[in-house]
Amino acid sequence: MKMKVKEVADLVGISVRTLHHYDDIGLLTPSETTESGYRLYSDDDLEKLQQILFFRELDFPLKKIRNILESPSFDRNEALQMHRKMLLEKRRRLDQMIETIDKTIQFTKGEIDMTNEEKFAGFDFSQNPYEEEARERWGDEAIDKTKAHYAAMSEDERKAVEQQFNNIYRKIAALRKGEPDSDEAQAAIQEWYDFLNQNSGHHFSLEAFKCIGQMYVDDERFTKNIDQYGTGLAKFMCDAMTVFADRNKKS
């Protein structure tokens, strides 16, 4: 029996507006539309919707999902196995972060000691949840080069890059209560600029670097992630990156 859009929305727990949007962009077009304009979803449509939502849970952008599902080589069972593997990894990281939170609560109460490494156990910035926005801002070529550059690294090289990333952020976080134009802050931001250009497979212009800093405060998701290293860090980095870009343009 086919279902109307409101029935599907209630079943799945998403909005009617979302289903309409999926239809509008060609991601999920219901198998039938009545003369009066009602969308009717078949069992096959629901299976496709399930697949879409698995991808969304893993932060795939809608355009990427559509391309995957439209590919002649797409195999549903293979995709389900991939979803399972990725969700297990996501659960593992979340469990580790919950453990880090529990330890941090004990640490703040003075019940245990924590090393700096333990304070950041579970954080993983190797997967970018904002890839779609990045592609819109700087284009596919820059993002594809970054992903290819990272994928070509060995496991040890990736760990070294992630450690360097964390070290730079901790260094800048320790300076965030000072002035963003101080020599110490600008030296740390220079290190961040060099890190991005050395480890992304793409050279970011000073203007792009400045835009990245602005995005740290314009997008609350970035702010939330960055401020995990210290409250106010996103704003401080934005200001310091602006100073860095403006100064170096003049030199």
TrEMBL record:
Keywords associated with the record: Activator, DNA-binding, Transcription, Transcription regulation
Domain of life: Bacteria
Single GO molecular function: DNA-binding transcription factor activity
Domain (HTH merR-type): residue spans on this chain: 2-71
Protein name: HTH-type transcriptional regulator
Organism annotation: Bacillus sonorensis L12
InterPro entries: DNA-bd_dom_put_sf, MerR-type_HTH_dom, MerR_fam, TipA-like_antibiotic-bd, TipAS_dom
Cited CDD domains: HTH_TipAL-Mta
Keyword Electron transport among UniProt keywords: no
The keyword Transcription regulation belongs to this UniProt entry's keyword annotation: yes
